[in-house]
Amino acid sequence: MTAAPPALAGPRSRDGDAHARIADGIRRGIIDGTRPPGSRILQEELAARYGASRVPVREAIRQLEYEGLLTVVPNAGAWVSTMTLAECEEIYRMRERLEPLLLSYSAPALSDDAIGALAALADRISDTGDDTGAFLDLDAAFHHASYAAAETTHLTDLVVRLWNVTAPYRRSYVASWSPEARRIAHEEHHLIVAALRDRDTEEAERVLGGHIRRTRRQLARTPEIFALSTDPR
């Protein structure tokens, strides 16, 4: 993706938007794999890195705990949250139902130009080869762009959160893909675009649901990626 998925807003602090900037930096690190599950989050390091006081640092940590990205242990500190296979499967089952619904809100309002941009993204995804980082960035850009025209109160933010909390495990999973698995994912992106171009929202929802379902089933076959980190709790 050329830009990160939509960030979730948190409360303002006395340091202006410092807490949002810090939260966004940590969130991006978790999503791009530089802060792996189980890694420690040090308030002193964050305050020094961002030139901020402890107040916005604590607010950023509380925001990311609320989003499910950090686990805070009283009197011990904060860590990047870990996830079991069962927890990840539950989230994917939620995505399997919620994202087609979100797409149903968005699809009728997508312009021809927006659908053309999705087609271009699908082509770029097909050209990523075995570059896991490029695939994940463009894949996220594709799906979030397909939802961009939806006018929702809660659903869009919820879907973004579900994407973010599974990001480290999705990265490990995609890195293990065979060429055939990549080919299928590329074809599904193009099928979603074709359905949107035909203004066949039901077909787009059906393909998207199957796209997510296939990932969930394949994740269940790679339980070893959930043993890469230690739960601080």
TrEMBL record:
Keywords: DNA-binding, Transcription, Transcription regulation. The lineage of its organism: Bacteria, Bacillati, Actinomycetota, Actinomycetes, Micrococcales. This is GntR family transcriptional regulator. PROSITE patterns: HTH_GNTR. Residues 16-83 form the HTH gntR-type domain. Pfam families: FCD, GntR. GO terms for molecular function: DNA binding; DNA-binding transcription factor activity. CDD domains: WHTH_GntR. It comes from the Bacteria. PANTHER family: GLUCONATE OPERON TRANSCRIPTIONAL REPRESSOR (PTHR43537:SF24), TRANSCRIPTIONAL REGULATOR, GNTR FAMILY (PTHR43537).
